[in-house]
Amino acid sequence: MEMLSNRSFILRTSDGQRSRLRRLRNGVPQGSVLSPLLFNIYFHDLPETTSRQYGYADDLAIMLRRTTWSAVEQGLNQDMGIFAAYLRKCRLQLSTGKTVSATYHLCNREAKRELSVSVDNKRLEHQLAPKYLGVRLDRTLSYKQQLEEVRAKVTARVLLIRRLAGTTWGASARTLRISTQALVFSAAEYCAPVWSRSPHVKKLPASPAALTGSTVSNTNGSWG
Q1: How far apart are CA 94 and CA 43, in angstroms?
Q2: 113: pLDDT confidence band, cut at 50, 70 and 90?
Q3: Which residues touch 117 (CB under 8 Å, ≥6 apart)?
Q4: CB 61 within 8 A of CB 55
Q5: Which residues pair with 132 in a beta bridge?
């Protein structure tokens, strides 16, 4: 009950200014471990839709498979209307700016085909490769763009580690190991079971630690 009632906050700036006391009348604390559980309890009665429903924490998605574009658009528009009515009943508002549509197929002639899906007379943005739960999902699910972004991120972080690994100065081996695992391996291995069979995996190095020019030991041996 303390999370849901009598909550307030004050905004303080770096130069010492502060706002007046403001009270929160809805929502749950951001980042709290209990917030996802409360969200699931609140949304336990999601209405049935023709589309399949997927969710993780507060990220919801629906997916519909049909043989024609018109059938896909008709089904998605109908289901989004059901969700919009449900959210109004729950005194919530859909964030249309964060809600997008996308298509997944192998027909190259229709590669740039955009869906016309609307909610409350507002058309949702269509993205060719939206990101869901931190993974870039391209049309053919080859994960090419995802791996290009991961490579860029890993390379930038490896350069940072290299700056800490001087021969005459620099961080200790323990600090380098922890930093590499936290900064490099966390980015390189995120959702690896999803994209590991992609033909574009060669865009990534065989071992993130190989780029650092050092050895990082772990419980199973060592990464060269």
Answers
A1: 14
A2: very high
A3: 73, 76, 77, 80, 101, 123, 124, 126
A4: yes
A5: 135
pTM over 0.70: yes
The pLDDT of residue 43 is 84
Non-local (6+) Cβ contacts of 73 within 8 A are 115, 116, 117
Residue 149 main-chain phi, psi, to 5 deg = -70, -40
Res 114 pLDDT > 90: yes
CB 130 within 8 A of CB 89: no
Three-class DSSP labels, 30-78: CCCCCHHHHHHHHCCCCCCCCCEEEEECCEEEEECCCCCHHHHHHHHHH
Residue 181's CB: how many other CB atoms inside 10 A? 16
Of the pLDDT bands very low, low, confident and very high (cuts 50, 70, 90), residue 205 is: low
Q: How far apart are CA 84 and CA 217, in angstroms?
A: 51
Q: How far apart are CA 87 and CA 114, in angstroms?
A: 26
Confidence of residue 203 (pLDDT cuts 50, 70, 90): low
